[in-house]
Amino acid sequence: MPPAEPQPRPSPGSGMRTVAGGQARPAEDRQAAAPVSRFRVRPMQLEDVDRVGDIEPLCFPLPWPKETYRRDLTSGGVSHYLVCERLGERAEPPLVVGFGGYWLIQDECHISTIAVHPDYRGLGLGELLLASMIREGMAGGARSSTLEVRVSNTPAQSLYAKYEFRVVGRRRRYYRDNNEDALVMSVESLDSASYRARFQRLWTALMLRLGGDSRGGDARS
Ligand SMILES: CC(C)(COP(=O)(O)OP(=O)(O)OC[C@H]1O[C@@H](n2cnc3c(N)ncnc32)[C@H](O)[C@@H]1OP(=O)(O)O)[C@@H](O)C(=O)NCCC(=O)NCCS
Description:
It is a single chain. This protein is 29% helix and 27% strand. It contains five helices and eight strands; from the N terminus they run ββααβββαβαββα. It has helices at 49-59, 66-75, 125-139, 154-162, 193-210, and strands at residues 34-35, 39-43, 79-86, 95-105, 108-116, 144-150, 166-175, 180-187. The structure holds coenzyme A. Residues 1, 59, 114-116, 121-127, 149, 153-156, 158-159, 162 line the site of coenzyme A.
């Protein structure tokens, strides 16, 4: 994922983002923010959009416009967004350093975007965002998760493989900037006891790595 508009990332303009009958959930029903010592994940707010829009072009050749986020955040549709923020020390305000998005449609959690500011990569924050989205998806009834990723994007593919996404297809010339193919990656059986147990092990290890508290990490909660 994701090509920028007008292509599907699925694209900001595509119908998928506003599919009727999707399972929109109010923010208060969503999982509690994942606390870690210096970073935390929480639902994206409108106030975050300018910063997210600044990070986009640092991460994607075809960035999404800020308006896409504003529209999705106010539409109450199937789109959900999280941000990862670095907690401020002393008087410093928290700083958004990454974000992720997913669509919860029926029993599928489609990861629509994920990015970490280049200065904050390699710290486990991309994993924190992905795991948080899967966790929310599972809590919302998702039984599978799917995404598209550039064939050349091996860091992202490794991240997804860690959470058992496997290549299930290929979309030819999916990305308009360079006509690169997308791999479709998917993980099934999110609701199985074995996946939940594996997820829980990964979550606990991640919390330890980030110096956080894994108690909130029961994937069944
Ligand atoms: C993909 C991305 C979100 C990863 O974020 P990150 O915070 O650097 O990743 P993490 O530190 O959490 O790493 C988690 C896992 O990702 C994989 N990974 C991350 N960087 C990697 C790299 N440079 N090479 C290979 N694997 C990598 C590893 O499996 C890693 O697990 P490990 O720590 O056990 O080795 C980040 O590189 C990014 O924002 N890229 C630009 C946007 C993008 O490509 N988004 C995905 C679109 S499909």
